[in-house]
From TrEMBL:
Protein name as it appears in the record: Primosomal protein N' (Replication factor Y) -superfamily II helicase
UniProt keyword terms in alphabetical order: ATP-binding, Helicase, Hydrolase, Nucleotide-binding
GO molecular function, one term: helicase activity
Species the sequence originates in: uncultured Sulfurovum sp
Taxonomic lineage from the root: Bacteria, Pseudomonadati, Campylobacterota, Epsilonproteobacteria, Campylobacterales
Superkingdom of this protein's organism: Bacteria
Length: 375
């Protein structure tokens, strides 16, 4: 499919404008003009989920790459089928194209963290990590390139009603006679021991969920997308392509229906906690629960994320920064030398280092132990 890209140009000099997270406006890098983005009074709406699911066409969308022609230099280049904006690889001009999916974002969170700020935050983060190889910190100073993405998310609202069955455990104490050794002689003593009494229980809990966010992109791992939350969705602004100018952006590749299944998992996690509170007692078991989801609604939104990947000793690592709040998350390499040193210290000898070298399978385990140990 062929697309013609659009870009926004400076009133004064005609150079391309890019969205600036610092000024919250379109900025001209050439003459310094700032063009504010008109504020929309449009309300951010929630859309009925059941209605949307019933009307979505379940045809297989062809995954064809987009052939985009640059509005500035007329060169053509390819973008992935789910890309909506990028920069022309030939002249660097922002290139914004059309959405092709049935549901398009009606609101977004603009970038608030600038690239420089994101870079500083990341450096601070890697510097604060225990067990990161020392050379890595230097490597970042010189090699770090960040990419700004608006990535698609679903937000879901639901009122839930959950019936449950389970058991409530109450601890009580009993006196028992025990034989103990005192000064090398056996002696009968009365000691207190705890027991637990289980009582069958059932009941229901009601919950109201607002904006459960689910990443709808496969560009970054779901774990990373999840770890970037919380997102402050109360400051969503109506969609305007000007916010995308200069950034890469994507449409959803995880559908509305699958996204809702993931949202149910998140909601169930909270519902289970509520059931435990409802059961009370010292311990709780939940044997069965069934949840009705009422008044379900959704939004398709774009969230700003700075990402980068880096290669360290032949392995790729990804990390990301929440472009609204500056929260950093990611995968990171560990220094086996530092870990080995700690294992050696923990086990009271230098043997640990040798053991780790010869048994890579224990590394995973050691990582968690060491990290816990270091708090
Ligand atoms: Zn200008
Ligand atoms: Zn171009």
């Amino acid at each position: 499919m062929k697309f013609k890209s659009i870009n926004f140009t400076c009133k004064h000099c005609g150079a391309p404008l890019r969205f600036s997270p610092i000024h919250n406006s379109l900025d001209c890098e050439f003459c310094g003009t700032q063009e504010s983005i008109e504020e929309s009074v449009e309300r951010i709406k929630e859309y009925d989920l059941q209605e949307a699911l019933a009307h979505l066409k379940h045809h297989h969308e062809q995954e064809i790459s987009k052939e985009v022609s640059c509005s500035k230099c007329a060169a053509t280049f390819n973008m992935t089928p789910y890309s909506v904006s990028s920069n022309c690889p030939y002249c660097g001009t922002p290139a914004i194209t059309n959405f092709v999916k049935e549901i398009t974002p009606k609101s977004l969170l603009p970038f608030h963290i600038s690239e420089k700020k994101a870079h500083d935050l990341f450096k601070k983060w890697i510097g604060s990590l225990w067990l990161a190889p020392s050379k890595l910190k230097k490597f970042f100073e010189s090699n770090q390139k960040l990419k700004g993405y608006y990535l698609p998310y679903w937000t879901y609202d639901a009122d839930t009603y959950t019936n449950y069955h389970g058991q409530r455990g109450d601890i009580y104490y009993v006196q028992v006679q025990k034989t103990v050794m005192v000064d090398g002689r056996q002696e009968r003593r009365t000691v207190q021991e705890s027991r637990i009494r289980w009582t069958p229980v059932s009941g229901h809990v009601s919950n109201s969920f607002d904006d459960i966010t689910i990443g709808a992109s496969k560009t970054i791992s779901n774990t990373i997308l999840d770890n970037l939350s919380p997102w402050h969705t109360e400051v969503l602004v109506p969609f305007n392509p000007k916010y995308l100018s200069g950034f890469d952006s994507e449409e959803y590749t995880i559908g509305l229906d699958n996204g809702f299944e993931l949202a149910k998992v998140k909601m169930t996690h909270i519902i289970r906690q509520d059931i435990r509170d409802d059961i009370g007692g010292d311990q709780q078991q939940i044997s069965h629960l069934s949840t009705q989801y009422n008044n379900t609604s959704y939004k398709n939104v774009l969230f700003p994320i700075w990402t980068a990947e880096f290669k360290w000793k032949n392995k790729m690592y990804n990390y990301a920064i929440n472009g609204q709040t500056g929260k950093v998350t990611g995968e990171r390499p560990y220094s086996w030398l530092k870990i080995a040193a700690i294992v050696g210290t923990l086990s009271g000898g230098a043997g640990g280092a040798v053991y780790v070298d010869q048994h890579p399978e224990v590394i995973q385990e050691i990582k968690s132990i060491s990290l816990e140990y270091l708090g």
